[in-house]
Amino acid sequence: MTLLYSEVEQELRSSVRGLLADRCPPAAVLKRVESEPYDLDLWKTLAGEIGVAGLLIPEELGGAGASASEAAVVLEELGRAVAPVPFLTSSVLATRALLPTRDALLGDLAEGRRTAALAVSFAASPYTPERGSSVSVDGDGRLSGTVTGVAGAEVADVLLVPVGGDLYAVEGASVEVVPSLDLTRPVATVTFAKTRARRVGACDLAAVLRFGAGLLASEQLGVAEWCLDTTLAYVKERHQFARPIGSFQALKHRLADLWLDVVRARAAARNAVADASSVSVAVAQSWNAGVAVRAAEEALQLHGGIGMTWEHPVHLYLKRAKATEIALGTPGDHREALASLVDVPGPGAG
């Protein structure tokens, strides 16, 4: 097992980063977030020309047959750009849930003709997978109930709904977008009222959310890297007392500590996709969620007054970092699980 990036992964990174630099600069993201956050034209290009939508889908089902490592590289770049596209929700979570069924829908997802969303609360975790859901299925295969905080639902052509260990495909649910801290990834309340559904197979929801949490660490890494790189560039240019503020010893120490945090986050994220065990995922989320928030907070503060303005995009990164800190399990959830997995005694243990 290696944590280094392969040549193929670096080429994929270059393609995605180049497209995002051209089509998804911070100013474009800022312009969209208050009206129509998702950029579906950008998504069609990513899916159709670069082929990111089908990375996790086997070749015989119409996909690229790539590994989680390639998907992680894409998420790093999407995190660096806070790109408003449904890659995590459709091409990671929904695709991972659908893969064991080998359903024909996978071919449409691979080519980007359709998108899907897993109808699970974004605040659910591998340890509490049913959080936010009250959906049931009757004898006629119709669904009733509500799921809160579903990411990607508003732009999904198909909702994949896990109920009682089974996975159902739905195309006619009520989707109501609700206020979200992260303006680049809205969440919605999804309601089913005896909605007709098609059973597509069994679903191990905890395993799907664990897989998603492991890959989310790579998106958090991308957020942290952008914040660090942007802040380093700013402190080299911003002058006070006739010298760059980056030359002040106190700032050097802060940025050096942050650099070390980001390096550790990269190792944790790479390990989570290379190994994908419960321990590796818990370690990655325990660390990376906090690093992304810390990097965004440091970027906001070290940019001074300009960092507090709406026009500077750093607030988008802070909001994305804070939103993903509670997505697919909080750092506390993962630390508690990690302690149990490695037999660390809890409080009060003799």
Write structural notes for this entry:
With 350 residues, this protein is α+β, with helices and mostly antiparallel strands. The chain has a domain at 206-341: Butyryl-CoA Dehydrogenase, subunit A, domain 3 (Up-down Bundle), CATH 1.20.140.10. It contains 12 helices and 10 strands. The protein has helices spanning 7-23, 26-32, 40-50, 68-80, 87-98, 105-111, 205-237, 249-275, 278-302, 304-307, 314-325, 331-341, and strands spanning 116-118, 136-137, 142-151, 158-163, 166-170, 174-178, 187-196, 198-202, 239-240, 243-244. A 4-stranded mixed β-sheet has the order 1-4-5-8, with helices on one face. Strands 2-3-7-6 form a 4-stranded antiparallel β-sheet, with no helix packed on it. A two-stranded antiparallel sheet has the order 9-10. Strand 4 (158-163) and strand 5 form a beta hairpin. Helix 7 runs parallel beside helix 9 (278-302) and helix 9 (278-302) packs antiparallel against helix 12 (331-341). The relative contact order is 0.12. The model has no long low-confidence stretch (mean pLDDT 92).
Topology:
Blueprint: H1 7-23, H2 26-32, H3 40-50, H4 68-80, H5 87-98, H6 105-111, E1 116-118, E2 136-137, E3 142-151, E4 158-163, E5 166-170, E6 174-178, E7 187-196, E8 198-202, H7 205-237, E9 239-240, E10 243-244, H8 249-275, H9 278-302, H10 304-307, H11 314-325, H12 331-341
Parallel strand pairs: 1-4
Antiparallel strand pairs: 2-3, 3-7, 4-5, 5-8, 6-7, 9-10
Features:
alpha+beta, 350 residues, four-stranded mixed beta sheet, 51% helix, Butyryl-CoA Dehydrogenase, subunit A, domain 3
